[in-house]
Amino acid sequence: MAYKIIASKCTNCGACEAACPVSAISEQGGKRVIDAGVCIDCGACASTCAFDAIEA
User: Which of 8, 11, 27, 50 is the most exposed place for a label (fewest CB within 10 A)?
Assistant: First the structure.
């Protein structure tokens, strides 16, 4: 199960995108999104997010 970004908590800072080892996170329409087909469920994005905007 891929991680998901909670849009209401996300500040679009990009820390999660930088932390992702497989480049599964990108910006689309001014929001960060996680590509579930690429995500390896490592949790690097969630542990990096200072706003608790990423959930499993």
Answer: 8
